[in-house]
Every structure is written in structure tokens, then in C-alpha cells.
């Protein structure tokens, strides 16, 4: 029984789960499109994108500074989410360095898609005797 408790505690300190593919893909594609719009707006085939193209062209033509600032704000938010993931790891007893690094990186790249998994994690607390 002591071995099982020790193994369970070790597993809890190294808790890590990957994000689901769809939310991760949406985040990556959204940030990639955002970067494309901000840095290479002249190469976007606006007419081929339908309503998204028309809306994007309007934003590029009339609000490029806002788009540029919004792009960097999005990455700043991802950094903040990653740092918050580190705080959550500590509060939930995740002490394994590799697991913490994976949470940081996954949250940096996928944002709330990753952070929501960590927020939902409820470690089982062992009674001290």
C-alpha cells in the first residue's frame, strides 16, 4: 500500500496532459493568420477568402496600427497565461521540472486550450498521519 501511495504521489507531481487537437489547431491557425495579416498584408488573397477576406482587408486598410498592437497583445496574453500556469502548477503540487516546462510551453503556444486543462485538474490530497 505504501508503494501505491508513493506512486500516486509521484504521478501527481508530474501531471501533464496534452491539449485536444481542435482547440490547439484553431489557436495556431488564428495566430498564424493574425501574423500574416500584420506582417504581410499585401500577400493575402482577400477576394478568395469571402467575408473573412473583406473584413480583413477593411481592418488592414483602416486599422493596421490596432491590428499590430493587438497581435503583440495576444502574445503578451499568452506569456501571462504561461506564467499563470506555473503558479497553478505550484498550487496543485506539480513539482516535476519536465511537467512544469511542458505546461509552460503548451500554454504559451495554445493559450486557454491548455490552461483550461490545468485549471480543471483537481489533485487528490493525501491525509497526513
Automatic annotation (TrEMBL):
It comes from the Eukaryota. InterPro entries: TMEM254. The chain crosses the membrane at residues 21-39, 70-89, 101-121. The keyword Transmembrane helix applies. It is found in: Membrane. It is a multi-pass membrane protein. One of its GO terms (cellular component) is membrane. Keywords: Membrane, Transmembrane, Transmembrane helix. PANTHER family: TRANSMEMBRANE PROTEIN 254 (PTHR34104). This is Transmembrane protein 254.
Amino acid at each position: 500500500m505504501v508503494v501505491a501511495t508513493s506512486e500516486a504521489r509521484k504521478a501527481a507531481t508530474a501531471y501533464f496532459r496534452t491539449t485536444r487537437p481542435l482547440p490547439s489547431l484553431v489557436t495556431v491557425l488564428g495566430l498564424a493568420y493574425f501574423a500574416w495579416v500584420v506582417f504581410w498584408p499585401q500577400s493575402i488573397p482577400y477576394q478568395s477568402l469571402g467575408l473573412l477576406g473583406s473584413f480583413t482587408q477593411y481592418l488592414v486598410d483602416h486599422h493596421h496600427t490596432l491590428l499590430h498592437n493587438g497581435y503583440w497583445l495576444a502574445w503578451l496574453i499568452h506569456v501571462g497565461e504561461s506564467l499563470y500556469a506555473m503558479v497553478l502548477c505550484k498550487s496543485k503540487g506539480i513539482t516535476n521540472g519536465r511537467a512544469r516546462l511542458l505546461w509552460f510551453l503548451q500554454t504559451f503556444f495554445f493559450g486557454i486550450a491548455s490552461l483550461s486543462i490545468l485549471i480543471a485538474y483537481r489533485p487528490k490530497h493525501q491525509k497526513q498521519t
